[in-house]
Design a protein that fits this description.
With 458 residues, this protein is of the alpha/beta class. It is built from 16 helices and eleven strands. The chain folds into three domains: 62 residues, no CATH class; 258 residues, Aspartate Aminotransferase, domain 2 (3-Layer(aba) Sandwich), CATH 3.40.640; 100 residues, Aspartate Aminotransferase, domain 1. Helix content is 43%, strand content 12%. It has a seven-stranded mixed beta sheet with strand order 1-7-6-5-4-2-3, sandwiched between helices. Strands 8-9-11-10 form a four-stranded antiparallel beta sheet. A hairpin with a 7-residue loop joins strand 8 and strand 9. Helix 4 packs across helix 13 and helix 6 crosses helix 7. The longest helix is centred in the C-terminal third of the chain and has 24 residues. Bound molecules: pyridoxal-5'-phosphate. One of its GO terms (cellular component) is cytoplasm.
């Protein structure tokens, strides 16, 4: 009997060693670009023509598969870390975090249980503890890194409802969650999955939710409200709700308080905006996405609970093959969200934090906020442009006077074609506008001004 695996693709050979070097070289080159090409989307017809039959019985061989990726597929993916990528929420991983994502990939660590991943889970928990401290939650708080804010919000709401179920006698006719009309779409998505109702509270003219509006919503909602969600930095405008007021209303009514800070909660790290987050410490749970404004690669959401035991009661999966983990009493990250098998997706952020220190994070977030304020000032000074709202964190929404959606679309396509920037049209109250979401410290004021200069009628 030979010791060689029969499955050739698991055997080490000069070929696999060479491919290893080639793929690592590719990754190195991708990291060395400054700036990385922005690239462009392609049609399916184009991709089918240029990358035909890649999945077949014989395989292409690594060289050819890598060539197809490097020459055809990768250029058809936008580089979300390009300094001119300013749409939606970009990403701007530090080199340390990207490097460590490679290490996570190479390490086959099971992140669901302490038994299997204690070292990595310990490191992830150090990061969660730092975030909890910054937010003002007690030392006994804890949680887990999940795939994204959507899953983080769902997991927190499931824990909240489970807690309400165990506390009250009898079920309400409908379970309800209160959030702002400007809350992220993922709250509504979670409500559909959970078959619960969303009661919308009205924000003020600037899009900020106040305690009084939550009180009003509680009155209209009637029975069955188990959670109140505040947004710490709306995705569209970066507006932070009145976190303390809303938290106090939640406390008064003994209702779970969840703070959705997927994008904005990182603003807590900047001295200039820290005050806006006053009251986060009242939260029963919060989320913040490292892949948005904490300079980590896709994908990661930090989900933190004031009392992790409540989340564990809601989320632990029981099964014969899992009992040995569950009964051991150790800290198993899987128990704290709607997930089981998990990548240790908090580890890239841990490595970068351990490398650079938390002050470097405050500096980077502060820099983005300064850049946002500086470009907002340029917009104020230009007669043809107008701010839609005063920026609060690092999102700047503005319009070009007289432009219709057609004008924005035409300009946006040209800008992408030129490789300078990716800035898509948006809208507010039916009026088209556009927006810069600035989370990349490589995004300079100079580049933003250059992009403004391309907004011409022609
Ligand atoms: C982006 C965002 C989400 C969703 O997070 P994903 O990681 O995209 O799933 C939720 N809430 C807010 C406020 C966000 O900005």
């Amino acid at each position: 009997m030979s010791n060689k695996p029969r499955a050739a693709m698991h055997a080490s050979s000069p070929d696999t060693a060479r491919l290893r070097e080639k793929v690592l070289d590719y990754a190195r080159e991708r990291m060395e670009f400054d700036p990385v090409p922005l690239d462009t989307p392609q049609t399916e017809t184009y991709l089918r023509e240029h990358a035909p039959n890649t999945v077949n019985s014989k395989g292409l061989g690594g060289d050819e598969a890598l060539r197809v990726f490097a020459e055809v597929l990768a250029p058809a993916c936008l580089s979300t870390d390009h300094p001119g990528y300013l749409s939606f929420i970009p990403t701007a991983p530090t080199e340390a975090s990207t490097l460590f994502d490679l290490v996570v990939s190479a390490s086959s660590i099971y992140g669901g249980s302490w038994l299997e991943g204690s070292g990595a889970v310990f490191a992830e928990n150090e990061v969660l503890a730092w975030l909890a401290r910054e937010a003002g939650l007690p030392e006994t708080s804890g949680g887990v890194f999940v795939q994204g804010g959507t899953l983080g919000n769902l997991s927190a709401l499931v824990a909240a409802r489970h807690t309400a179920m165990t506390l009250r006698n009898g079920r309400p006719e409908r379970w309800k969650v209160i959030c702002s009309a400007e809350a992220h779409s993922s709250i509504k998505a979670a409500a559909r999955v959970m078959d619960i109702d969303v009661v919308l509270a009205s924000p003020d003219a600037n899009g900020r939710l106040h305690g009084q509006a939550v009180r009003d919503a509680l009155k209209t909602a009637g029975d069955g409200v188990f959670a109140i969600v505040a947004t710490a930095g709306t995705t569209n405008f970066g507006i932070v709700d009145k976190l303390r007021e809303i938290g106090e209303v939640a406390r008064e009514h003994k209702i779970w308080y969840h703070v959705d800070g997927a994008y904005g909660l990182a603003g807590l790290l900047a001295p200039a905006t820290r005050e806006l987050f006053d009251g986060t410490e009242l939260a029963d749970s919060f989320i913040v996405d490292p892949h948005k404004w904490l300079f980590a690669p896709f994908d990661a959401c930090a989900l933190v609970y004031r009392n992790p035991e409540l989340a564990k009661a809601a989320h632990t999966q029981h099964g014969e093959y899992l009992d040995t983990l569950t009964d051991g009493g150790a800290f198993n990250p899987s128990d704290y969200a709607y997930n089981l098998t998990r990548r240790v997706r908090g580890l890239p952020l841990w490595f970068s934090l351990a490398t650079h220190g938390t002050s470097a994070y405050s500096d980077a977030v502060s820099q983005n906020i300064e850049t946002a304020n500086a470009i907002a000032q340029v917009i104020r000074e230009r007669d043809d442009l107008e701010l839609v709202r005063e920026p609060e964190l690092s999102v700047v929404v503005f319009k070009k006077k007289g432009w219709t959606l057609v004008d924005y679309d035409r300009w946006s396509s040209k800008l992408l074609e030129s490789g300078v920037g990716f800035v898509v049209p948006s809208s507010h109250k039916g009026e088209p506008n556009t927006r810069f979401a600035i989370v990349n410290p490589r995004t300079t004021l100079k580049l933003l001004v250059k992009i403004l200069d391309t907004m011409k009628d022609d």
